[in-house]
Amino acid sequence: MKNVTDSFVSLGHWPSAGSFGFNTDILATNPINLSVVLGVLIFFGKGVLNDLLDNRKQRILSTIRNSEELRRGAIEQLEKARVRLRKVEMEADEYRMNGYSEIEREKVNLINATSYSLEQLENYKNETLHFEQQRAINQVRQQVFQQALQGALGTLNSCLNSELHFRTISANIGILGAMEEITD
Predict the structure, then answer these.
(1) Which residues form a coiled coil (predicted)?
(2) Which whole number is the average pLDDT over 92-113?
């Protein structure tokens, strides 16, 4: 237990013959530490992440359904506009002698206004989907990070007794003091 305690306080070289110790070679231990942390994150965060993703999927599907309803409404408006266009074209035939150019301008304006409305609805749908996707990704990232941090803090708190905790804090304060002296 003393070797474990001292390894948190002192980061010096440990002789490998005859005693148990920690390998302080950063290049050799970082992949091991990362794999352990990733394993713990995957093990503990898998269920929560699945629930979050399922909830997010339902929200996205709901947003898609709403967008589809908006799309259907836009198609209905387009059909109404086409009916109106047909009506305008029939009136154009009647008024061709009196002012063909006036009717043609109204037809073009009607088509342009309808096209513009459809483009706006399509853009709104795409922006909404993109926004919801980004928000879902950010929420999942934040929740996974918070859960990983809480798990790590819980693990640290359960592993550290008060003496070891005091030694670790003292060692870190010493390291920060040394770094401050170097920068001065």
Answers:
(1) 64-98
(2) 78
- Its sign, for the CA torsion 152, 158, 162, 167, is negative
Q: Rounded to whole angstroms, how far apart are CA atoms 6 and 176?
A: 19
Quick: pLDDT tens for 25-60. Answer: 666 677 777 888 888 888 887 888 788 889 999 999
Closest CA to 167 of 4, 6, 2: 6
Of residues 112, 116, 110, the one with CA closest to residue 81: 110
C-alpha span between 142 and 148 (Å, rounded): 10
Counted residue by residue, the chain has a size of 184
Say how far apart CA 33 and CA 21 lie, in whole Å. 16
Q: Model-level pTM? A: 0.30
Contact predicate 136/56, CB 8 Å: yes
Query: C-alpha 181: how far from its chain's center?
Result: 40
pLDDT band at 12 (very low <50, low <70, confident <90, very high): very low
